[in-house]
Write a structure and sequence with these properties.
The chain is an all-alpha fold and 326 residues long. The chain is built from 17 helices and 2 strands. Strands 1-2 form a two-stranded antiparallel ribbon. The chain is globular and about 75 Å long.
Amino acid sequence: MSTSMKSASPPTGVEDPPAAIPPPAPRGRLRRALRRDWQLYSLAVLPLLFFLVFRYLPMIGNVIAFRRFEPGGSMFGEDWVGLRYVRMFLGDPTFWQVFRNTLWLGGLTLVFCFPIPIVLALLLNEVRRRSLKRFVQSVSYLPHFLSIVIVAGLTLQMLATDGPVNHALAWLGHDEIRFIQEPGWFRTIYVGSEIWQTAGWGTILYLAALTTIDEDLYEAARIDGANRWQQIWHVTLPGIRPTMITLLILNVGTFMAVGFEKVLLLYNPLTYPTADVIPTYVYRTGVESNSFSYAAAIGLFEAVIGLVLITSANTLSRRTVGTSLW
């Protein structure tokens, strides 16, 4: 007895599943997001214009590092000279002295000014009296709101030959010290004033990062017998490590851009051997001596070094600790 084989058919009353809807195109998603949140996106217009006008458009002027520029002539230089100005500053002994001064000041600033806000934030985090904590925070934040001109003026007045510091030294029986005129004191003065002005403000980010650490981690560490130092080492520091790495990368990126304004206000011809850095040398060469092409070549060299430093620091941080800016 033979039976006929029929293909199975779906039961009646059951519809086919709906076809998968393709995801919207990226351009369509962006358009809908702009229509929905245009008020929020409009807040970014002024910052973007600021960076466009004052950061990106001036980059076009770097072309005069390879062209002979004369004041009153063409905006982008008269004649193409290639690497002439690069060879000039690479063979200039004054430039290499300025380059060494920049490395010294940048290195000292990074070594001392980067860890001190971390230490201060850890100390403030251990303070239990809220009134004392607020008072210390207010006092440490205050120098950040002072103008660099005021900070430099205070520094010069305090360390003048007839200033309070020398009066205190004379009262202790020491001879007066010409802090402002002696090249050996400039780096100490600069780094000390930088710590005083920036340490308190730098603790804000670290204190904010400390509030994100789970209290259960401290409880577990106490149950395991960890004391306060061990809790800081094994719980607190790992908790704020992403913030530390991010700020370290940013500081490395500005390693060569030593504070131009403060150096310009504090130094004088007597302290050039240790105080003259690349930004001040570029200012004197370009603005005071009208050698704009030569100054542009030096500034471009400084920018390239900064780009290499921040890229290297970001890559090293991503491969070692897994935290990076991009």
